[in-house]
Amino acid sequence: MSMLAEIHDKLNLFLKTKGLRSTPQRNAIIDIIFESDDHFTADELWDRIRKTNSKASRATVYRTLSLLVEANLLHEIDLGEDIKTYDPNFNDKPAHNHLICVDCGKVIEFEDNHLELLNNCLTKRLGFLPKSQSIRIEANCEELRTKGSCSNLIQARLSGKRLPKKR
User: Residue 36: what pLDDT?
Assistant: First the structure.
């Protein structure tokens, strides 16, 4: 069974417990969300939905996001700027860390065995059992600093992606 089919199945079971049903609009939204591992905001998802033939409304997009988060199929993360960002691939990677460029907004996920070991040591020493880990590091990407321009920044501006506020 493909990951997408598994997500649809899990959501359908969750919807039944809530007395809701699957709809073509909701299914189209799920397909678009999980077609890539890209992080996105609700507005960015809405822009992607509008470019398809889906009849989903903005309200349906927001309700579907809430349902996916509540069903633990989508993760809401804080990448700064007080904007909800959604991460479609946290289920595969419970140790979930992000490096965010404060100039161009590029987000890179990373895993590191040393961090997992440190997490285990710290939590056990303090009497806890680790369940998940999430680290957010804000930094400047090398491309802008070394080359004077950043293809990520240019692409972000062209696509209308939100950019970090300058501090």
Answer: 83
Whether the Cβ atoms of residue 78 and residue 136 lie closer than 8 Å to each other: yes
Residue 25 has pLDDT above 80, yes or no: yes
Q: State the DSSP H helix or E strand holding residue 69, giving kind and residue range, or none if neither.
A: helix 58-70
Q: How far is CA 10 from CA 4, 59, 77, 133, in A?
A: 10, 22, 21, 24
Q: What are phi and psi of 146, to 5 degrees?
A: -85, -35
Q: Pull the structure tokens for residue 93.
A: 């990677």
> What order of strands is seen across the sheet that includes strand 133-139?
107-110, 95-101, 133-139
The pTM assigned to this predicted structure is: 0.70
At 81, the pLDDT band (50, 70, 90 cuts) reads low
* CA separation for the pair 124, 42 (Å, rounded): 37
Q: How many CB atoms lie within 10 A of CB 40?
A: 20
Confidence of residue 32 (pLDDT cuts 50, 70, 90): very high
DSSP E strand boundaries for the chain:
75-78, 84-87, 95-101, 107-110, 133-139
